[in-house]
Amino acid sequence: MPEQANLYQILQANDEFVSNQKYKEYQTDKFPEKRMVILTCMDTRLVELLERAMGISQGQAKIIRVAGAQVHHPFGSAMHSILIAVHMLEADEVVVVAHHDCGMQSVERDVFVDKLIKRGISPKTVSMMEHAGIELDRWLHKFDNVYDSVKDTVSVIKNHPFLAEAGIPVHGLVIDPHTGKLELVVDGYKQTEK
Ligand SMILES: [Zn+2]
Questions:
Q1: Distance 24 CA to ligand 1 centre (A)
Q2: Ligand 1 centre and the CA of 2: distance in Å?
Q3: Tell me, what's the pLDDT at 106?
Q4: Ligand 1 center from residue 35 Cα (angstroms)
Q5: 113 C-alpha to center of ligand 1: Å?
Q6: Which letter, b or e, does each residue of 49-88 get, where b requires 16 or more Cβ atoms within 10 Å of its Cβ?
Q7: Ligand 1 center to residue 120 CA distance, Å?
Q8: Of which family is this protein a member (predicted)?
Q9: For residue 131, how far is its CA from the centre of ligand 1 (angstroms)?
Q10: CA 72 to centroid of ligand 1, rounded, Å
């Protein structure tokens, strides 16, 4: 691998970061100061934009990033992180932030399979998985409408058996990945009013 390969660049940047004590400005503890957990997308345009656009800095929130900002399974890994944040790490509210122009809006089974094959996965492996019961279309969780997707995700989280009775507000927002502009879709404070 060439010296300028990503991994070696990371290790070099890390040497400089640590030896110049750049970590000092990031020191905090594991509990979120604003007592919230954010579920958002892994989109590269949101890497720093999301926190800046939401006025959140180091130490203030738990942030979970998964493709599409969706919770697919009530006992899957995204939900696991949310439950840990709430019950073990003192988060008192959940904020779901999906975004316009999300890659998950165009993830079709056939396109995905083409990409697998281009990467060297054999068609035999693909059909073996499908015969074994993996329904790729369902598993991919493509969504058409970002607002509906946010509402669904909020509902899955809010109604989770390990959250529903705790009265934790769950909010839903959509962010513009170019400007950082947020749109409120679900105001979790109003939803939890009795
Ligand atoms: Zn996305």
A1: 32
A2: 31
A3: 86
A4: 24
A5: 20
A6: bbbebbebeeebbbbbbbbbbbbbebeeebbebbbebbee
A7: 25
A8: Belongs to the beta-class carbonic anhydrase family.
A9: 29
A10: 15
Over the stretch 75-100, which tens digit does the pLDDT of each residue have?
Answer: 999 999 999 999 999 999 999 999 99
The tens digit of pLDDT for each residue in 107-159 reads 999 999 999 999 999 999 999 999 999 999 999 999 999 999 999 999 999 99
Task: Give residue 40 CA to ligand 1 midpoint distance, Å.
Answer: 8
Helix axes 123-131, 109-118, angle to 10 degrees: 140
Distance 173 CA to ligand 1 centre (A): 13
- Please report the domains of the chain, with CATH numbers, ordered by start residue: 34-100+144-191 (3.40.1050.10), 107-141 (no CATH)
HEC readout, the chain: CCCCCHHHHHHHHHHHHHHCCHHHHHCCCCCCCCCEEEEECCCHHHCCHHHHHHCCCCCCEEEEECHHHCCCCCCCHHHHHHHHHHHHCCCCEEEEEEECCCHHHCCCHHHHHHHHHHCCCCHHHHHHHHHCCCCHHHHHCCCCCHHHHHHHHHHHHHCCCCCHHHCCCEEEEEECCCCCCEEEEECHHHHCCC
